[in-house]
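PROTEIN DATA CARD
Card holder: Methenyltetrahydrofolate cyclohydrolase
Chain length: 207
Origin: Bacteroides sedimenti
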Amino acid sequence: MLADLTIKEYLAKTAGDEAVPAGGCAAAMGAALAASLTRKIAKLIASRMDIGEQKIQMESLADNMGALSDEFTHCIDADAKAYQELMAAHKMPSKTEEEKVLRDEQIQKNTLIVAMVPFDVAEMAMRMMDYIAEVAKLADKNLLSDICTAMFFARSAALSGLQTTRTNLPSLKSKNVVVDLTIKSSEIEKQAVTKERELLDWIKSSN
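Structure generated from the sequence above:
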């Protein structure tokens, strides 16, 4: 399990000769870091508040970020597993017509999973950016650099996840799936870039 490795072990594996972990896992890792950092900031803000609606909001948001961090961490291993199963499908026997059909079905099935795991990471990371912006509005100036770091990681996770998805789309035979994911990927990318720019503009205008 990649998620159980130490940071040094994970980095060594990423730099190693094995196919995974690679880009999809890195996208999930970046998103998990963004969620964890946002959780830390939200908890800190809540700890400085008296009992009230905003304190409850920050505590709830911190809990949500904890759950998201766990989900992104799960996606690290899910991405690696999906890729390994795709490689196994490519190695299936294909001497008979029946074997060829079964092999092709498994390749298509696992290619879709390989495309969908980073897509899900990208979509969740993009939506998480709204929560990061909410935290920013209640953070003091000393926390804004951490807020920006979380936002940058989230945007990077979204864009890199989408790129991994797009890389696998040409291998899918379902044109409807390809068109749907292409359209949705473009929208997610647009929203991620916009959300990051809006936060930076807000910080600039508030200083």
